[in-house]
Amino acid sequence: MGKRVLFISDHGDPLAKLGGEQSGGQNNYVKQLALALDDKGIKIDCITHWSNPEAPMIEGFGENCRVIRIAAGHKGYMPKTKMYRLLTTFYEELRQTVQLESYDIIHSHYWLSGLLGLYIKDEYNKPLVHTSHSLGAAKLEAQEKVEQRRLRAEKMILQGADRVIATTPSERNLIKKFAGNDVKVELSSIGVDPVFHPYTKRKQSSSSTFAFAGRLEKTKGIYTLLEAFQDIHMQSNRPPRLVIAGGGENDVDSIAKIPYDSDLRGMIKGMESYVDFIGPQSQGELAELFNMATAVIVPSYYESFGMVAAEAQACGTPVIASDVGGLKNVVADKESGLLTKPKCSKQLAEAVNELTYDSLLVKRLGVQASKRAKNYFNWDTIAQQMSKTYEVLSDVGSHAHVGD
What is the model's pTM? Predict the structure, then answer.
């Protein structure tokens, strides 16, 4: 096919180590989709902010993929909440760094990148594909504070893109509800890195062990999770273990396996010997953790998709997840896991207890979880679908250009 596609992932460097404050599901999605499209003969350049000064400006991966880092006047970490003010500088430097007219398709990731994508679409007449990863409208539904600027920008991007990628039916419905029925939405799941698979000999712990992987922040449900385990510990003589992976390098004492945050430390008081904070982990390390766990817990307040839930299922491990957003599509309730009311530590504790004491249920859910992952979270299938979308849009774009 030989198409050239420009990915824009302004705050999500696909080659950054996962588990940090701005290196999670989006980074991994961008990297894995690029590699899968690379296998289809599509050349991918990914533009991102130069957040790690130690990293080179241009870094290759796969056969024909490159990360191109843009300083935008600030080489070094910049929280995504402050990156809006860099966009004009980012765009000017981007224009000077790469030949934007040479790309067949622009694919933006997250709303900040979407604004850059709209600039390119307008100036260079390039088809724009957009994946939100996180929607302000979803945060509103979860009763989180959202800047009006973000909501206005997201509506403009969703209405202006030639194709919007929704990763779950729930996200597609929300996009239509928020931005209107005229938005051209295409449903395309998220794949799982092949490192996540059931081990031949699962390293199941002798006692029940539950795992959490994600940022150590309120909206990821970390406080609800710890409240649930407080309840369990008060009522059980042999409480299960909890292993918490994630957070940044400076968030966790990896030797003592406790968090530095005083609120989190207060919540594990009396449970220190049963709760381990192990910090950020590589994909391979997470696969080992998920294979060892009785179940993986994803207690988020909202998720557009829920990558950890998909990865855990790919390991043949049941998932206990909040019944919100994409999670209720990614996890099949009572089939590949258990869905619980969000922000409800009591229901979460009940689900943990159910899997602690019912090994047959754990085994049945695990078998179904593995089958579900193979059917729905396959990068090769997703890349095939995405390449067809690119083909259609670039053909329409070239015909429109000829007719001008």
Answer: 0.80
